[in-house]
Amino acid sequence: GLPATPPPVLSERRKTRQLQVGQVGVGSEHPISVQSMTTTVTADVNATLQQIAELTAAGCDIVRVACPSADDAEALPAIAKKSQIPVIADIHFQPKYVFAAIEAGCAAVRVNPGNIKKFDDKVAEIARAASDHGTPIRIGVNAGSLDKRLLAKYGKATPEALAESALWEASLFAEHDFHDLKISVKHNDPVVMIRAYEILAEQCDYPLHLGVTEAGPAFQGTIKSAVAFGALLRQGIGDTIRVSLSAPPVEEVKVGVQILQSLNLRPRKLEIVSCPSCGRAQVDVYKLADEVTAGLQGMEVPLRVAVMGCVVNGPGEAREADLGVASGNGKGQIFVKGEVIKTVPEHQIVETLIEEAMRIAEESGES
Ligand code: SF4
């Protein structure tokens, strides 16, 4: 069954204002949400909804869609209506699409004021429309499109420049009594990004959307995001996250979910505790771990499965897990809740673990 006490977490969340992105609450009173962004042409409603469904299945809580053209803006009502998760419209350059997105029933709108010309004159109007519809706004400052004034003042996109830009833009909304804001200040350098968010966290109580921008291909981007988010989440900073990868967005969601699960900020489901293998291994641990992971994909109950290459640490770890195997001599000792329940030949290890996992899942469903 489920653990009786909640698992330990590293830090208390920084106290923030709360806002509602559709049915998803964002802020310190709510779980940290995972976001991603579609890569389809937004105007292609079916393709976009299909991708949103895939992201939802992977654990995405909120999805963002780009809106670079009038055709995309026209597709927003259908997408916002049919998506299972809240849809945020991402607007650059053209304030008219901000109004279109609000009217379309998008759950929030992301603006990059550095990219919206004459944004300042439009703030009053945007604030009024957003407030009328209860639509939150994300102020998304990006190192690559920093406000020219701040670029001139700081010479480049320093942490101070990013934070000042976002806070200045937030103050424009605040002047119109609009506070339903969340903020992001993205940079491709995790060190700059971390510092920028720390400054923001000290200086405002808006919820923060974490992101390392242009983080790179999957391997590098995963690591950059994990270390940057980890450093901030450890301080309780961060209310919603987006991992950016030069890879399909489902991969971003998987990484985001895994980062939160690693810090106990989201309930763990399937967790594979597998050894790195070493000269003592009597089985191909990598292959076994991959096969078990693939076989148990999509398990909906929390399950810790140990996959160990030999009997040195094997039984110990396997005992700590819900389910496990310690291999040796062409056989696998199968453990359930610390007890060896059977020993099977190597070729039956994967199927046996899957069988036992299904049984545990069924039993926990009944309890
Ligand atoms: Fe090596 Fe055995 Fe430890 Fe795996 S469990 S790393 S094979 S000693």
From TrEMBL:
Residues 16-256 form the IspG TIM-barrel domain. Its EC number is 1.17.7.3. Its cofactor is [4Fe-4S] cluster. Binds 1 [4Fe-4S] cluster. It comes from the Bacteria. Residues 271-357 form the IspG C-terminal domain. [4Fe-4S] cluster binds at C275, C278, C310, E317. One of its GO terms (biological process) is isopentenyl diphosphate biosynthetic process, methylerythritol 4-phosphate pathway. Converts 2C-methyl-D-erythritol 2,4-cyclodiphosphate (ME-2,4cPP) into 1-hydroxy-2-methyl-2-(E)-butenyl 4-diphosphate. Pfam families: GcpE, GcpE_C. It catalyses: (2E)-4-hydroxy-3-methylbut-2-enyl diphosphate + oxidized [flavodoxin] + H2O + 2 H(+) = 2-C-methyl-D-erythritol 2,4-cyclic diphosphate + reduced [flavodoxin]. Pathway: Isoprenoid biosynthesis; isopentenyl diphosphate biosynthesis via DXP pathway; isopentenyl diphosphate from 1-deoxy-D-xylulose 5-phosphate: step 5/6. It is an enzyme of class 1 (oxidoreductase). Belongs to the IspG family. This is 4-hydroxy-3-methylbut-2-en-1-yl diphosphate synthase (flavodoxin). The keyword Acyltransferase does not apply. Gene3D superfamilies: Dihydropteroate synthase-like (3.20.20.20), Sulfite Reductase Hemoprotein, domain 1 (3.30.413.10). The keyword Metal-binding applies. GO terms for molecular function: 4 iron, 4 sulfur cluster binding; 4-hydroxy-3-methylbut-2-en-1-yl diphosphate synthase activity (ferredoxin); 4-hydroxy-3-methylbut-2-enyl-diphosphate synthase activity (flavodoxin); iron ion binding. Keywords: 4Fe-4S, Iron, Iron-sulfur, Isoprene biosynthesis, Metal-binding, Oxidoreductase.
